[in-house]
Amino acid sequence: MSVHKETKRITTHTLQEMKNSGEKIAMLTAYDYSMATIVDDAGMDIILVGDSASNVMAGHETTLPITLDQMIYHASSVVRAAKRALVVVDLPFGSYQGNSKEALNSAIRIMKEAGAHAVKMEGGVEIAESVSRILTAGIPVMGHLGLTPQSIYKFGTYTVRAKHEAEAKKLKEDALKLQELGCFGIVLEKIPAKLAAEVSKSLSIPTIGIGAGQHCDGQVLVIHDMLGINKGFKPRFLRQYAELYDVMNGAIKNYVSDIKAKKFPNEKEQY
Ligand code: KIV
User: Fold this and answer.
1) Is position 243 annotated as part of the catalytic site?
2) Which of 189, 243, 267, 269 is catalytic?
C-alpha cells in the first residue's frame, strides 16, 4: 500500500489491536473522492464503500441493482482520497452468490481495479466456500450478519433481525464460522443489543455495529443518514450529527434567487 509520508495507514492488524486494547473502531460510508477526503481527514478508521450507494447515490429502492462496475467506480474514487483509513468495499448482489470462482473474480476486480484494501460480504455458512477462496487469495474479508439488505426480498421488511432464538442461534454460529474462516471483522446490522454484546464478547475479531447497540467493538453509519442529507430517514439507531439537507437546500435557494434578482455575479465576480 502506498501511503502519505507521515500518515500511518490503518490495517486489519491495527483493527485487531484496537479490539484487544478496547479502543472503539469508527467506520463510515463514502462513495466519492470529495466526501471520502473529508471523512479521512476527520480521522475515520474504516471507510466503507457500501452498496448503499445504490440507495443514496443512484436513488434505487434497494441495494440489489448496483453492479460490480459501478462499485469499482465508486471505490476507486474513495481509494484516491483515503490517506489513512482502511477502505472496505461491498461485493454487490449477484457478484458472489453464484459460485466461489465468480466470488473470487469479483473480489480480485475490486482489489485490482479500485485499489481497495478489503471486501465485505453478506451472509454466513451459505457463503463459506466463497469467503474461504477469497481469503486464500490474500484478500481480507469482512463479514456482515443480521439485517443483510441484499436479502430484503427474503426478509420482506427492514425490521430488527434475530429477535427469536432460532435466528439468534444461527447468527452466533455464522459469526463463529466467519471468524474461523479468517474474516478480520464482522458488521452486525439491526439486531438486539444483548445479542450483539454476546457475539462481540465471544469473538476474538472486532464486530462493527449498526443498530446493534453500544457493546460492539465499533460503529458504522451511512454518511448521508448521519449528516442529515436524507431528509425523513430517522430510524431509532441513527444519530444525526448535522442537518445538511436544510443547509444545502437553503444555500442553493439563495443562489437561484440571486440569479433571478440579477445579484449574481456582481462587478467583483467578473473579468
Ligand atoms: O452498504 C452499506 O452501507 C452497509 C452498511 C449499512 C453497513 O453495508
Assistant:
1) no
2) 189
Give per-residue pLDDT as tens, 139-161.
Answer: 999 999 999 999 999 999 999 99
Residue in 78, 161, 189 to alter for ligand 1 test, most ligand atoms within 8 A of Cβ: 189
CA 119 to ligand 1 centroid distance, Å: 12
- Locate cell 479490539: which residue? 19
Q: What is the pLDDT of residues 228-265, one digit of tens each?
A: 999 889 999 999 999 999 999 999 999 999 999 999 99
User: What is the b/e burial string over 27-36, where b = at least 16 CB atoms within 10 angstroms of the residue's CB?
Assistant: bbbbbbeebb
Structural domains of the chain in order of their starting residue, each with its CATH number: 12-240 (3.20.20.60), 243-271 (no CATH)
Q: Which amino acid is at 161?
A: R
CA triplet 138, 11, 120: central angle to 5 degrees? 60
